[in-house]
């Protein structure tokens, strides 16, 4: 579907969403608080020039310099800075990605922070995990604060209190066993 800048109207009665929230299916769309200013407008609080985010018509993803989602859900976010509080994002990609009491399917960024939440996959240069659960974590440097759990962890440097369910030795053994089992099943099917 075509993209539009915040503040542009396509003539329908749907309101422009600039606060990073996508409406839930089946709910009526209502006017929301505007977070981003008009293009080239100086904001009163910070004095910086703000670009309008690009919000795609189906409401599934957002492209902007900074996106903050509070108690909402978005399919995909591409931004320099992504902050999620008590919500969900399918795919978050940015320079800095921060998740607090929320869930993310996949997060990719230079700095990824996950606190009291869950993530499917994280790919980062530096990751900070605080009381969270991650299925797959690949990073150059990982810092764990308070007990956290990771299923698969691949990192150059790891610090903190963490429970890794599948380290590199267990992953190697699991891969060998899976390969052997798949080979036997495949051979058995061809023989009959």
Textual characterization of the structure:
The chain has 192 residues and is mainly beta. The protein has a domain at 59-191. The protein contains one helix and ten strands. The chain has one helix at residues 168-191; strands at residues 3-5, 41-42, 49-50, 54-56, 61-70, 73-85, 88-100, 103-115, 118-130, 133-166. A hairpin with a 6-residue loop joins β2 (41-42) and β3. It is globular.
Name its key features.
192 residues, 1 helix, disordered N terminus
Rounded mean pLDDT is 75
The global form is globular
Rg on CA atoms, Å: 21 Å
Number-wise, the strands total 10
Report the β-strand fraction as a percent range.
over 45%
Strand order of the largest sheet: 1-4-5-6-7-8-9-10
Major sheet attributes: 8 strands, mixed
* Number of helical segments with 4 or more residues: 1
DSSP helix fraction: 10-25%
Order of helices and strands: EEEEEEEEEEH
Structural category is mainly beta
Distance between the termini: 50 Å
Low-confidence stretches: 1-49
